[in-house]
Design goal:
Rossmann fold, 5-stranded parallel sheet, 4-stranded parallel sheet, alpha/beta, about 35% helix, about 325 residues, single chain
């Protein structure tokens, strides 16, 4: 089936076939990234604007590198260098970017719904690079892409997401993608951060870490999202770590072939011990590498490219 979406706002609205299309395209681009010459002319002449109005390292750099690997011109700026500091509205900022003949906007914003809002008023594609606690679709796509590289078909695979689920856009995007792909998702953490209401998304909620980890094939750690919390959901960081931090003892409860993931940034010694973050089971840096190929696929497809046209370029 041809790719028909102009924007990428949420994984909730994508079909399994569309997720597979992005992953297939990313596989082809990953082959290109292994070559001596890592660029293709797919978006030559296009200008992509990275509008990051919330802090970011991995996502911003990955989108920047992805666009450049596709030969696009890239302009990146953040809140501090934009006219939003002078009171300009998001709409005016985005419409000015479009008026300057940009071909696509990649936006990160602290307010949920901002990318959807822009997609309804702009004529150019809008890519959601994270909006509040709503979704982070490119992260969910690269995470599931990484899982598929290790396990192939994810149907029936048990994935545990451990940590601050309530305020995590990464968790929501992964839940949407993994559910469509047939994985069994279990959310674990303190009841204040993993409320029972998440069961409405078709996942299992648990506050018993040992039983949740016992047969997990993937465990994804999430940091505590302090910037989105109005109150403290637990007495102290030390107490959270003592009950839910992944250490060597708790890692021994895992399936021997289980992998450890983290979208970053990592708070070492809080949600995960440093030795585990750097250990043999960790695929955290694989996630970062895969983020370039997956974001190349997103930019390429939303610019009007088709999956089958990438394959000859990767030979």
């Amino acid at each position: 089936m041809p790719w028909t979406r102009k924007h990428l706002i949420t994984l909730e609205e994508l079909s399994l076939a569309e997720i597979d299309q992005i992953h297939t395209t990313a596989t082809a681009f990953k082959k290109i990234l292994r070559r001596n010459v890592k660029k293709v002319p797919a978006l030559r002449g296009k200008t992509i604007v990275n509008l990051f109005l919330e802090p970011s390292t991995r996502t911003r750099i990955a989108f920047d590198m992805a666009a450049k690997r596709l030969s696009a011109d890239v302009i990146s700026f953040d809140a501090a260098s934009s006219s939003t500091t002078k009171g300009e509205t998001l709409r005016d900022t985005a419409e000015n970017i479009q008026a300057l003949n940009a071909d696509m906007i990649v936006i990160r914003h602290a307010c949920a719904g901002s990318p959807l809002y822009l997609s309804r008023i702009l004529d150019i594609p809008v890519i959601n690079a994270g909006d509040g606690a709503h979704e982070h679709p490119s992260q969910g796509l690269l995470d599931t892409f990484t899982m598929k590289e290790h396990f192939g078909d994810l149907r029936g695979r048990k994935v545990v997401i451990l940590g601050d689920i309530l305020f995590s856009r990464v968790a929501r995007s992964n839940i949407h993608a993994l559910s469509k792909m047939g994985a069994a998702v279990t959310l674990v953490g303190p009841s204040t951060l993993v409320p029972h209401a998440f069961t409405s998304m078709g996942v299992t909620v648990s506050h018993d870490l040992k039983s949740a980890l016992a047969d997990a094939e993937v465990v994804m750690l999430l940091r505590i999202q302090h910037e989105r919390q109005a109150t403290n959901p637990f007495p102290s960081i030390g107490e959270y770590t003592s009950m839910f931090g992944l250490n060597k003892t708790r890692a021994s409860w895992l399936n021997p072939k289980a992998i450890i993931m983290h979208p970053g940034p990592i708070n070492r010694g809080v949600e995960i011990d440093a030795d585990l973050a750097d250990g043999e089971r960790s695929v955290i840096l694989e996630q970062v590498t895969n983020g370039i190929a997956v974001r190349m696929a997103i930019l390429y497809l939303c610019s009007g490219g088709q999956p089958e046209h990438v394959l000859p370029s990767s030979e």
